[in-house]
């Protein structure tokens, strides 16, 4: 039996996300992910209002009049969410924990998908596959996906992105749009990500808390690694130590962004102290602009 407070929270997330889909993301999702159908159908003469990007220049040059390519009706998409449930997600120095923001982002994108009649699936992972929800259509199914991300209690604490990507490659054969939602506090996933991105359209959603980048001067502090349980005592008044710590974390973040860029993996960079809507909109605008060329 799911607790009433969880159902209430799912409902609140649904309402808030639905408003954002209607007010902010209307048209953005379709223009980026749907676009033209994948299968060529025929060539016909250009008519007023046709998209000039569909002009077939070879036929146009041969016949002396502009002709455009027509495509079969766009196929449905499958949207997969790979969500990191490791214990480092249960951290947040601002209003929300990282895993709460992850749930809202998944809800926003999933509701955009179902509005466009696409299927939505889910893989929850730590350092093992925790749960798989096969792709389906419909609002009821999307509410289940939101509920699982919010409510599911993982058995393990660690993170292994490679395991999640390997499972995706094994279980989903047809090309999908895949949102990989994690704080990426791990390593060793680069090779598998490169392979997965050749078969699927992988989009990394990185969620970071400002305290993971910079430590304020508050004296001696005990820090516990949420995934390993290791405890360290550090002196935050030690300026050299904190500067070294801050530089190390910021460099890690920059290196990760450069790595993803080199693989052709788009990155949505989200922070817990800022709205996640603007990074998502920036992603859609950037990808739409890229598709125009």
The helix/strand series, from N terminus to C terminus, equals HHEHEEHEEHHEHEEEHEH
Assigned CATH class of the largest domain: Alpha Beta
Identify the CATH architecture of the largest domain.
Answer: 3-Layer(aba) Sandwich
Write down the domain tally: 2
Instruction: Sketch the major β-sheet.
Output: 6 strands, mixed
Extract low-pLDDT stretches: none
- Trace the largest sheet across and list its strands: 5-4-3-6-7-10
Beta-strand content: 15-25%
Structural class of the secondary structure composition? alpha/beta
Radius of gyration, CA atoms, in whole angstroms: 22 Å
Report the average pLDDT across residues.
Answer: 86
How much helicity do the residues have?
A: 40-55%
Number-wise, the strands total: 10
- Count of alpha/pi helices: 9
Q: Provide the CATH topology of the largest domain.
A: Rossmann fold
Give a structural overview.
It is a single chain. The protein has 293 residues and is an alpha/beta fold. It has two domains: 38-71, no CATH class; 76-291, Rossmann fold, CATH 3.40.50.410. It is built from nine helices and ten strands. It has helices at 4-23, 28-34, 57-63, 98-115, 139-151, 161-171, 190-199, 239-263, 277-291; strands at residues 40-45, 67-71, 78-84, 119-125, 129-136, 177-182, 201-208, 220-224, 231-235, 266-271. It has a six-stranded mixed sheet with strand order 5-4-3-6-7-10, sandwiched between helices. A two-stranded antiparallel sheet has the order 1-2. Strands 8-9 form a two-stranded antiparallel ribbon. Strand 3 (78-84), helix 4 (98-115) and strand 4 (119-125) form a beta-alpha-beta unit. Helix 1 (4-23) packs across helix 4 (98-115), helix 1 (4-23) packs across helix 5 (139-151) and helix 2 packs across helix 9. It is globular, with a radius of gyration of 22 Å.
């Amino acid at each position: 039996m799911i607790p009433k407070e969880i159902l209430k929270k799912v409902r609140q997330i649904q309402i808030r996300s639905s408003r954002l889909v209607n007010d902010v993301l209307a048209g953005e999702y379709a223009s980026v992910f749907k676009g033209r159908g994948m299968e060529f159908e025929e060539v016909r003469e250009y008519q007023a209002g046709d998209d000039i990007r569909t002009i077939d220049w070879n036929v146009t040059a041969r016949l002396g009049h502009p002709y455009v390519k027509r495509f079969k009706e766009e196929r449905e998409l499958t949207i997969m969410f790979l969500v990191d449930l490791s214990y480092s997600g249960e951290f947040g120095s601002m209003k929300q924990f990282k895993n709460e923001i992850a749930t809202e982002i998944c809800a926003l994108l999933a509701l955009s998908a179902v509005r466009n009649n696409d299927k939505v699936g889910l893989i929850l992972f730590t350092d093992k596959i925790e749960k798989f929800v096969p792709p389906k259509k419909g609002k009821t199914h999307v509410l289940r996906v939101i509920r699982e991300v919010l409510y599911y209690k993982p058995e393990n604490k660690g993170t292994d992105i490679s395991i999640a990507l390997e499972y995706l490659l094994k279980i989903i054969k047809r090309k999908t749009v895949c949102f990989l939602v994690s704080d990426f506090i791990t390593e060793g996933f680069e090779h598998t990500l490169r392979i997965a991105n050749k078969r699927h359209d992988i989009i990394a959603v990185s969620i970071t808390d400002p305290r993971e980048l910079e430590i304020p001067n508050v004296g001696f502090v005990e820090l516990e690694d949420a995934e390993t349980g290791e405890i360290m005592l550090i002196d935050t008044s030690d300026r050299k130590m904190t500067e070294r710590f801050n530089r190390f974390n910021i460099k890690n973040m920059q290196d990760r962004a450069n790595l993803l860029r080199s693989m052709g993996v788009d990155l949505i960079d989200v922070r817990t102290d800022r709205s996640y809507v603007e990074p998502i909109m920036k992603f859609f605008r950037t990808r739409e602009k890229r598709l125009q060329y």
